[in-house]
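[step 3/7] fold_predict: job queued, chain A
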Amino acid sequence: MKIRNWLAAGIVVITTLALAGCGGKGKEENVPEAAESAKDDFIYVAEYETLGEEGYMVGNVMSGDEGTIYFVGGKDNQTKLFVRKMDGSQEEIPVDLAENTVISVIGKDTEGNLLLGLETYDQLGGMESKTENVTIRKISPDGTVLQDVDTGKAMVKDDSFYMQSLLEDKDGNYYVCLQNSICVIKQDGQPYCEIDVGTYIGSMFSVKGEKVLVSYFGDVAYEVQEVDLAGKRLKALDVPITFEYGTYLSGGELADILYTVGTKLYTYNLGDEEPVEILNWVDSDIDSGNLRDFQILADSRVVAFSMDWSSDEPKAELAVLTKKNRAEVPEKTVLTYGTTYIPYFAKADVVAFNKQSDKYRIEIKDYSEGDKDYETIVSLWSADMSSGNGPDIIDMVYSPVELEELVSMGVVEDLNPYLDKDADMNREDYVENALKAYEEDGKLYAVMRCFGVETMIGKESDIGTGTSWTLDDVMALMDSKESDVELFEYTTKYNALQMMLAINGDKFVDEENGTCHFNDGEFIKILEFANRFPQEVTYDQNGPSDVEKIRKGKLLLLKETVTSVQQYQLYENKFGGAINMIGYPTSGESGTMITPNGTTVAMNVNSKNKEGVWEFMKFLLDQERQENLQSANAGFPVMKSALEKQFEKDMTAEYYEDADGTKKEMPKATWTSGASGEVTVEVFAASQEQVDRIRQMIETAGAARIDSQIFSIIIDESQSYFDGQKKAEDAAGLIQERVQVYLNEKR
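[step 4/7] structure written:
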């Protein structure tokens, strides 16, 4: 795969947008207006209940007939099978399990019977347990055993063996979905074939008992393909539609495929020209990213099972959705959340807010919905913003322009008055640098739920122990090494230039006085530094991992966004010794940058519901939300007390007992590296020194941004220098002239 000037994508569009918002100097007549879609008269209203028996963690789940849900509950290395019926009753289905045997997966045959994938281990409990035997058991819905098929260890290739799903075709063959392959087992337990998909399999399901389909990420796009049993392979479906990343399941008797993409639920029959949209999950306060199973009943109700990971104790939730006229549903004030791409974390936060608010409801306006190119997406977004019809809540993570342009356009509200007058909030409770990341001229324009710190990491023996370094320091390091030693992996001239502009770009522009100085020695030095890198690089997926390169002295630095203490520990392991998160080279005090790692939003100055927007922002910054980020790598919370609580958790060791009763510490995180996962790194409870390193990095990190119009000018004029047509000084002179003209036009 070639990596070249990926920065150029969208620059022309962003340039047009930036001019459109500058004091009326842009031309808006050619920008298409955002289409307004008529609201559906109906909405699916959800009723929720917690699934499972007290003390049991819900594992594998499967939909049965007409809303019946079968699920496995686990507790103290023991598993039980449960059924939840549509009348609300829940009961255990008795399953006789041999010693050291658990129910790993459940499925069904073509006649409504259940299939259980049973794993027998050499020992239960402990991190070293190994699978000794796999049995496929067929039972009736009441638990009567109909058949036991002993497959032995035919499917077990290594210690990472894991069954994802299980089904039976009309000929009695069993299909077992592993992580990257499909094993087909004959009725007598003997293997028929194993189809290696070569990548993680999203789902495996049956179409009315006639076909078995598999969904997964292909080489260039998401794929849904058929298992060709005769050819012992997967084959493409002959359908007129393309499939996108989502959750794909059997449609039962109502449709061939039932699937979710983004926030929408669809049905599709093979051969149809297009799918049928059923509902928007967000409208029913359901986070589609947490869905594990769903089905449509004959009476049009929808049953959905999801796992809520927003707290320390994951909660299994069942929702029954009933289609109702909107007039029957209590009215709430609607807020719009506008984005050019729906981040999974924003979707989760919007759903959580909607479920707890009795006054407001947020609807997501996705400008990328449908078959649009990036230019059209940004033009629609621009038209809404510049006309005063933009969304109430502006997503900043996928905003096509930087904060400066939004401020210049006059479309974002200063949040300081809201923060200062809110009796429930205190500015001092939040990490100062995280708030400053979205400040301009003393005004606060956006807030983030959590953040990371973008930095450069290297060995102290190479880069020293300082808190910053200059471009001269970096080039001296490069010159001291052999020519085959990389500074960074897979970095082009344009990547290097963008990196330097991100942290240093604003140092060459004085917006207040409308001047710039790109023709001085410091900027020319940046161009010369970027020119040391190749025009393009080739990614070798079978090449050595970064760990191998580092340990052989062939790679000096990593460019990373650090979002947890565990990541810092990982980098210590990768470099095999003391490291320094020194940041990007800069003439300023710090080369590290605060960057959003979760929902980050601004308030539209034209919103008619600003109090509602502020309520959503408060929700993001609330102590409970701050203390319950979904995972260790979700980012650092912006609330100081939540951050300190996370640090305490990072330093607290957790233990388990192995089969011999020996107490052992559990790893906090595990990473694998290399084409075949040949390098495995486990990290455990952090030391105070490691946490202090992270704290220092956060306290010294700054904000970095550059006007996208200025950025596009620099990229455009640098090309002639990188191609050898001009000297660096000449390219810098052209950049100086064009940026100065742009600044003059803005004034």
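[step 5/7] annotate
The longest strand covers residues 315-325.
The CA atoms of residues 67 and 86 lie 6 Å apart.
exit 0
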